[in-house]
Amino acid sequence: MRTYRRLVLASVAALGVTLAAPRVVAQIVVFDPNNYSQNVLTAARELQQINNQIVSLQNQAQSLVNQARNLASLPYSSLQQVQQSITRTQQLLNQAQRIAYDVQQVDRAFSTTYAPASPSQSSQALITGAQERWQSSVAALQDSLRVQAGVVGNLDTYRTQSAALVSSSQSASGALQAMQAGNQLLSLQAQQLADLTAVAASQNRAQSLEGAQRAAAQDQGREQLRRFLAPGQGYQPTAVRMFHQ
């Protein structure tokens, strides 16, 4: 009887241990190659899009840098030196003596000093007019030489500024700097042409006054010859005392 009881208790205990133990479920992992390849392709596309966005941002940044360079002003300017050269040449032209570069003065001079000799003029008036014309010619020649000397003095300034502008143009960091350097070079060339015009004007003025003097002298010579040949009181001898007594 005891033996039977022991068997029953042992059976019950074994059953309890069995019921109390956790259930173990077997899991099997299944690998799907199609799904894996799709995921890889999707990740690759997303990575390519990110790379494209990075490249686009880099290009935009470089474009902004280039725009900043193109908008940068030229740090060098020859405007002051060119204006000083213009002022010097203009001052020399304004200092023209006697007959200046003025239409009214020219008309007034050719209606008086350079006018044809009149029979009513006295001999002294003719002589005075000839002296005034000669003085005007000499003054015009002096003015021409002074203008030429001033223009030659500007050559050093032009050479220095031209070299500086060419160097600035070659080292320009953007389009605006290169354009500004080119504009200043054109301005420098325009001033050189203005100096040449001033020299030509002063030379032509001197030549014109010299030609006008010769024409007036010829006309005055004809008038003096006419007076000399005109009939009138002839030569009257007069007594001359050679020695003091």
Automatic annotation (TrEMBL):
Residues 40-99 form a coiled coil. Residues 1-26 form the signal peptide. The keyword rRNA processing does not apply. It comes from the Bacteria. Keywords: Coiled coil, Signal. NCBIfam families: PRK13874.1 (NF010448), TrbJ_Ti (TIGR02780). This is P-type conjugative transfer protein TrbJ. It comes from Rhodopseudomonas palustris. The lineage of its organism: Bacteria, Pseudomonadati, Pseudomonadota, Alphaproteobacteria, Hyphomicrobiales.
